[in-house]
Amino acid sequence: MTTEISIEAFSSTEVELKSLVEDAEYALKNFNIEDEMSLDLFKSRKKDLQKARLDITETGKKLRAEALQVQKGIIAQEKQLLEFITPTEDKMKAVLERIKQVEIEKERVKELPERISLLDDIGDDIEPNKEHLLSLDHDQFVAYLNERKATHYEAVVKKQEAEKREADQKREAEEAKQREVDEAVANEKKEAEVKLQAEKDAKEKAERELVEAKERQEREAKEAKEKAERELQAEEARLKKETEDTKYQEWLNQPRGDGDFKQERVGNVVQMWKLVDTFTFDEA
């Protein structure tokens, strides 16, 4: 089955289209809305372009439909012809693929010790699975190696963090215990200091009370002595005054001449005066 489709099926040529475009560009450039002929020419050229566009679109649609039928026929013929050679080619490809796989496996067997060594260097204590390692290509093994490293690193980090937490908890417990011991020692020291201070205060208080009692006794004795001396002095003064009053009374009661004191008693008050001298003076 042979079907030919030519681009010449389009009715319009590039030359014709170019001419239409040039006429339209001329009408567009010289368009004047005030000029009726210019407006008619503009509309006419616009219709020419529209008709050419519709013709091209319709022709293209028709040709695409014809081409689709041709494509379907080609695909069917292609499939029919391939059915003759594909089975045998696939068998040959399988043989070559197996040969290639054997070569790859040989190469991987050579690389196996190195792969095992790289995995052992990780230190995650996982026994190597040789069959699994032989099934991996280079990129797959690199990905597997990196995954093992990442997993081991994560496990190491977690272990270190756990050990650090355990060490921190142990240290905190020891510090808490030490704080309790320090607090107990401090409390005992404080209690001893308080007791010692209390004993010191009690001793000082007793000494002050003893001193105060002694001072009070001395002060009371001094006050009693001073009181007794004041009373004695008062009694001596009273007796002296009484003696003087008696003597004075006796003196007062003695007869006196004109030159003696003149006395006059008013109640319990005795007034005494004596003529000192007399003066004579002329009245002005």
Overview of the molecule:
The protein is mainly alpha-helical and 284 residues long. The protein has a domain of 129 residues. 78% of the residues lie in helices and 4% in strands. It has four helices and two strands. Strands 1-2 form a two-stranded antiparallel ribbon. Helix 1 crosses helix 2. The longest helix is centred in the C-terminal third of the chain and has 116 residues. The relative contact order is 0.03. The model has no long low-confidence stretch (mean pLDDT 82).
Question: Features of this protein?
Answer:
single chain; two-stranded antiparallel sheet; 78% helix; 4 helices; mainly alpha
Describe the protein's topology:
Layout lengths: L13 H16 L6 H85 L9 H5 L3 H116 L8 E5 L2 E5 L11
Antiparallel strand pairs: 1-2
Helix pairs in contact: 1-2
Put the structure in a nutshell.
By secondary structure, the chain is mainly alpha-helical.
Q: Element order, helices and strands?
A: HHHHEE
Low-confidence stretches: none
Number of helices: 4
Distance between the termini: 197 Å
Principal-axis shape = elongated
Beta percentage is under 5%
Strand order of the largest sheet: 1-2
Structural class: mainly alpha
Sheet with the most strands, sense and barrel status: 2 strands, antiparallel
Number of strands: 2
Arithmetic mean of pLDDT? 82
Helix content: over 70%
Any idea what the radius of gyration is?
74 Å
